[in-house]
Amino acid sequence: MRCFLTASLVVASLAGHVYGHRHVAPTSLEEGRTSHRRKSLGFGPEHPHAVFHSTPYQIQTNGFTPMDPAMDPLEVARIFVEDVLMGKLSESSTYRIRGDSYTDKNTGVTHVYVRQLVNGLEVADGDMNINIKDGMVLSYGNSFFNGVTPEPFTNVNAFRDPRQEACETMYNSFMSFQPTHPVDSEQIIMGQAPTPSADIHEAQHLLHDNCGLMSFPEHLNSDDMSDFRPALLQFMATATPNADVAGDILNRFTHHKDSMKVSQTSHFAPSHDEQPIEFTVDNVPDAVNPVKAKLAYIQVPTEGGETTELHLVWKFEVEMQDNWYETSVSATAPHKIISVVDWASDAPIPKVPQVVPATYNVFKWGINDPAVGSRSIEKENFDSLASPVGWHAIPYAHDPSFKGVRLTTNDFYRNTTTTWGNNVFAQENWEGQNAYIYNYRPDAGSKNEFHYEYDPQETEKPDAMDEAQKYINTTITQLFYTTNMVHDLYYRYGFDEVAGNFQQYNFGRGGAENDGVIANAQDGSGFNNANFMTPPDGQNGRMRMYLWNTALPYRDGDLEAGIVIHELSHGLSTRLTGGPANSGCLGWGESGGMGEGWGDFLATTIRSNKIYSDYAMGAWAANRESGIRNYVYSLDETVNPSTYKTLDKPGYWGVHAIGEVWAEILWVVSQKLIEKHGYSDDLFPPAPLEDGTVPAGDFYRPSKKGPLVPKYGNSLIVQLVLNGMKLQTCRPSFFDARDAIIQADQVLTGGENFCELWAGFSARGLGQDASVINRTPWGGGVRTNGYSVPPACKDYVTPKEASI
Questions:
Q1: Residue positions in the annotated binding site?
Q2: Which of 567, 660, 664, 675 is catalytic?
Q3: Which of 113, 193, 240, 488 could, after both became Cys, cross-link 98 (CB 3.0–4.6 A)?
Q4: Architecture of domain 51-142
Q5: Is 681 left (phi over 0), alpha (psi -120 to 50) or beta?
């Protein structure tokens, strides 16, 4: 117990979806705000048999030939699964095609998501994604279990803990690791974020969070497989950042177990995705909503790590104050946490209401922060495709503030004069709690003019909080404006309703509803950071933006667009990878790191200009010219030397450091496309015509048939990155994501940028001959840079070289 409580005191946050590279708690309380490190767990088994095949040759050699182009893509997927894969599995193994499968409107590719079932229970990490067009399987990813299945409701007596070997390796590496520079202790004392050279602390926090709690006191285990309460309590004791709560769970274990209220979820008729055993649990310590529980299987590597075996687990969905976990815990004693992912995601269109478009006094789209531009009056971006009724209208039936209220109007829509609409609910959250409906937000009145001053003055430290809060109207307005702009931009590139975007009402276009973004400004739960929780489609995403006490006056992260874009991009990548209803595909290792990297890359691309520049992340908020990453994003290898091999460094165990490398690689790739195709000053596509069609304008290539193809390099790379997310497999590696982007270009343009893309990836070590061995549950291993390109590109020269 002593070891358990000691480890519980560590509240590091390195594996979850948190913007800041490091989050150091100030040494004092400010105005009642208890700043804390956000603890986040993220790990799980590796899948040595998992594959992602992205070429027709790989697929056809498995014995599958194209079907009739007119055949239903879901039927093609069924034949593919049964003819090619199911013959390799046992009779007790079957599958279901998930309800979140969909067809991309632009490319015509149908993304089919399949979940494996064994003995009637889902295999939590038995996933397939199959990409189909015109009867042809373009690519697929597969992590189906293909070994010997156990008898129903039995479990192996023991299993190889997937973390044990990795933790020993991590510990040995940590003990031998020496930081390149000393930590600036004065910065920490002054409440500032430490310099990016302090990687030894990141490694230490990661070691404690993921390796400090590998077993529990024997008397806290249960031999009754049907009683999941001990397993859930042990997870809560591990996951809570509050040492007092962890200690209370251990000391009063029986009390907490008996206090839980368990209800079985029953349905009148079976649903497409219904599981045979499913419960909700109330009164769970440190959970803010009822926990969902269901019995499932998970794959655990066997000795040697070359194969896997199925282990029976209780799969929990746990919403906490700062986290939203999906975790698998052994169903039988000893209860061990096997995997953790921190998510911390029809009716006819009614007549469009008559509204006065709002105006906002904000840092306009493209101005990253107050250091690079001034505020101006901007109009509501009334995009009739992305936001058909604007940003301030929401149906009464989908408005959380009217839930349970008897209406006295027959109107379908409610028009608001606050920062409350169909895409986002923006408000202050000074108390740092989960409540949001009745939190303060500005009211612009009948004119919808959100015009507020912003002129913070330097004060003494004790008065800095009051000074920042004076400008809460400006802060919330900016957050509402930026979030809606991101919603509309990503929508136009394919993050729409069926793909799992965030909207309360989906206008009869499909997808799950009631999941607009809850955006909290000046959140009181911390400083110097931001975070985003992404549950599956149909549940609200939650974004928390913090103040930064790195300067006087305090700097407000809501005003740095790059931070907001980074956070919202977590929702984008999580919902697009593995399907809208699966939020467990970017939890740890390289996949979790890319979740961070996509956010950095998209934020950097959005703020970039036609004249090339290097860019830092978080430079204004952190009051540091070089930003909060190890390096600024740059083509110059003396400025940013990151390569694929960089991931082997001990300081690159955390997802943020991994993400830096991925973002840098994408930045290099994007410049190859810009060099070839030029640069668009506006990333927004043209407004649609009255009949709903989108004109080519100067944005798309003129074409009467086929998908819309952005004509400039910077808009094209955004499209390829989003399309690649849809194509790639669940839990992708760098290689999988690279191949998916290259295939996205094949689908969109016929592969005309094949060599440019390979040249960009190989420039930073992700060429054809790159490799990795001995991966760990956090993405560790030994990597080899590869600089070769396919034979078809051996004579490739850049456009610049060709013009000389």
A1: 346, 566, 570, 596
A2: 567
A3: 113
A4: Roll (3.10)
A5: alpha
